[in-house]
């Protein structure tokens, strides 16, 4: 006998909603019914299962240990049902939703997107600017572009190119930087959320003992880059953020070396379904675009004069 036949679906929905919302009233608002109806459905589920799923307290309802095990699985199941319904209403061959880190989207991707649109005028691209790794199997996102070390469970991740870092600064400030040791005597811009540090660049350069100077601190990489363009200091940046500012001369590289961190850029897709035409087209275009731009190439420190 199919276990789903033991309990009506509304009862399972009520159990999941109470566990997620914490009270009968909040669950009722979420489901669009009355608190009494939710309570009856929860009692029905408990009776059919022969388990007490919740501890009733004055402040709300807390899942029991067995209740937590069950409601976690219910939440995952209803999320997948919701994703299936959402996908049924979409034209998957013509609409593409891409989750991408805001910095990569704003400073690199959107400036090249017209080339994709020119090559694929029938595909409409929607961007979800988000730092978290979303699972394309559980929502409306078709494809993620992420930076990290990979090895994420439950998804397919295809490596694109390594994250490459190097210092940049305004042209006038670069005149003060003749040796690596000069970094200790100039302002250095730092990002609090960076996934790399100065030793990731100074070590491969052969100068691990250099301690860069103090300077402005920001929580956003784009603000750090903009500050560097104003001449506020030297910034240890990553390639996709700085490539256009270097090309237009707003920034320069005071040193020759470019070194890879342990992170890579990845294309992340659902593990449990075959990519549609739009996903395949965008993936192919992004790989060609990044390869043509030479992203991920490293170079050693300049030889001593």
TrEMBL record:
Keywords: DNA-binding, Transcription, Transcription regulation. Residues 7-64 form the HTH lysR-type domain. InterPro entries: LysR-type_TF_proteobact-type, LysR_HTH_N, LysR_subst-bd, WH-like_DNA-bd_sf, WH_DNA-bd_sf. It comes from the Bacteria. Belongs to the LysR transcriptional regulatory family. This is LysR substrate-binding domain-containing protein. It comes from Albidovulum sediminis.
